[in-house]
Amino acid sequence: MSEHGEVFVPVKVLLVDDEVNITKSLRRLLSQEDDYEILVGNSGDEGLVQIRENEDIGVIISDQRMPQMTGVEFLGEARKLLPDAIRILLTGYADIEASIAAINQGAVYRYLTKPWQDDELLTAIAEAADHFRLVRENKRLNALVTRQNAELQDWNARLKQRVLDQTSQIREKSDSLAEKNKQLRSSFSETIEALSGLIEMRDRKVPGHSRNTAELVAAMAREMGLSAEDVRSYRSAALLHDIGKIGMTDELLSKDEGLLDEAELIEYQRHVIRGQAAIDPVLELRDLGLLIRHHHENFDGSGFPDGLAKEAIPLGARLIAVANCFEAKLHHFAEAEALDEALKEMAQEWGTRLDPTLEKVFHATAKALFSHLEFTAEVVERKVSPKELVVGMQLRHDLHSGTGVLLLKKGTIFDEFGIDAINRCFMIDPFEREITVLIDSQEK
Ligand SMILES: [Fe+2]
Fold it and tell me: Residue 270 C-alpha to ligand 1 middle, in angstroms?
C-alpha cells in the first residue's frame, strides 16, 4: 500500500538487448527492488511483441546497437504503441550523438551510457517509474473527472426533464382543476338562477323583481370596487333574497305589505328566516343565508328579524335592502315617471331604513341601469326575436309563454341568464315571436 492508501502495483519494466548477459545483469540489478516487474526482449521485434502483450508497460530500456533494428528505431515504434511509457536508451560513447538526436525528436526520455553505474541507473529507472506513475495517475484522475462530469451532466439533464415533466403535470392538473371549477361555478350559477325563477313563479306580483334587484346590487358592488367574489356572492344572495316566500300562502303573497294584519305580518316576516333555513343545508350557499336573513334589517335597528343596526348588518344585506326597496317602488308608478318618482321616494329612507353611506353609489348606479325607464329621445323601441336579445335591453311589455304563463314583467332588464332562460322557454313553450324591448338609440 502506498502512503495514500492505494494498492501498490509494481511498474512493468521492459529490457531489450541482443546481449543476454546485459539483460541478465540488468534484471538482477532491478530485482533488488520490489517496485518492478521485469520483462525481457532480445531484439527490437521481441520487444514489440512484449509491448503488444503488455499494454501496461511503464518503462522501456533498450540498447542502441542491435542487429536489424537499432534502439532508436525500436523506441520510435514503441512510442507509437505506448505513448505514455518512459523510454530510456542504453548507448556506448560512440553513439552519443545519435542518442541526443533521438531525445530531441522525442523518441527517448533520456539516455544512459554503457557501462553504467548501478546507482545512477537505479535512480534513473526509479525516476522514470515515478514519472510513469504520475502520468498514469493523472490520466486516471482525468478519466474520473470526465466520467463524473458526464454523470453530472446526465443527472442534470434528467433532473431538468423531471422538473419539466412535473411542471407540465402540475399545469395539466391546474388547468383541469380550473376547468372543473368553471363548470362547478357555472352549474352553481344555473342552480341559483333556477331557484330564483321558482321564486318569481310563486310570487307573480312583481316578476323580474329578484333579477332586477340582483343586477342593481351587482352594479353597486362593482361601482364600490368590491372583489369579483363579493360581487358574485351578493348578486346570488339578491337573486335568492325572497326564497323564503315560496312557503307563503297565496293569500298572503297577494297582499301588499302595508295591508297585513298583525298575525299576517308575523307570518310575512318569517320569510327571511325560512329563506336562510332553506339554503342552509347547501354548504356553498350558507354564507348567502346570512344576507338573506338580514335583507329586511333597517339601518336604524327597527327592522327584522334580529333588529340589527348600522354596520352590524352585513354589507351585502344592506345593498340588497337598498336595491329591494327601490325595485319595489318602481312598480308603484307609471312607467314614464317611475325612475324619478322612485328616486324621490327613496329620499326619506336613507338613515332610517337604508344605509346613508350607500346613497351616492346607489344614485349613480340606478340612473345608469334604469335610465331606459325614462322614455326620452335617447331610448327607442324595437322588436326582436328571442335570438336577437342582447344584455342590457329592457322588456317593454309583460312577456307571457305560449300557454299564458307570465314569464317576465315589463321593465325587466335582460342579462345573459335571462336571455338564456327566455330562449329555452321559447323552445319548450313558444310565445309570440317578437319581443318589444327598449334600447339606447346609440346602440341601434
Ligand atoms: Fe323580502
Answer: 10
Please write the tens of the pLDDT for every residue from 135-177. Answer: 889 999 999 999 999 999 999 999 999 999 989 988 998 898 8
pLDDT digits (tens, 9 = 90+) for 355-408: 999 999 999 898 888 765 554 546 677 888 888 888 888 888 778 777 766 677
Lowest mean pLDDT among 206-210, 264-268, 324-328: 206-210
- Report the alpha-carbon distance of residue 267 to residue 253 in Å, rounded: 11
Exposure b/e, 151-164, CB count within 10 A at least 16 = b: eeeeeeeeeeeeee
End-to-end, the C-alpha distance of the chain in Å comes to 100
Domain ranges, ordered by start, for the chain: 11-141, 203-370, 375-444
pTM of the model: 0.53
> How far is ligand 1, taken at its centre, from the CA of residue 244, in Å?
8
Most confident of 132-136, 182-186, 329-333: 132-136
Class of domain 375-444 as given by CATH: alpha beta
203-370: CATH topology is: Hypothetical protein af1432 (1.10.3210)
Regarding the domain delimited by 11-141, which CATH topology (the fold level of the hierarchy) does it fall under? Rossmann fold (3.40.50)
Ligand 1 centroid–CA 299 distance in Å is: 15
- In Å, what is the CA distance from 42 to each residue of 60, 108, 120, 124? 13, 19, 23, 22
Nearest to 240 by CA among 189, 195, 191, 187: 195
**How much helix, strand and coil, in percent to the nearest 5, is found in the chain?**
60, 10, 30
Ligand 1 centroid to Cα of residue 272, in Å, is 7
State the distance from the centre of ligand 1 to the C-alpha of 375, rounded, in angstroms: 29
Three cell numbers, residue 426? 321559447
Calculate the alpha carbon distances from 364 to 262, 361, 378 in Å. Answer: 37, 5, 18
At 395, give phi and psi (nearest 5°). Answer: -70, 130
- CA 68 to ligand 1 center in whole angstroms: 122
Q: State the cell numbers at 157.
A: 439533464
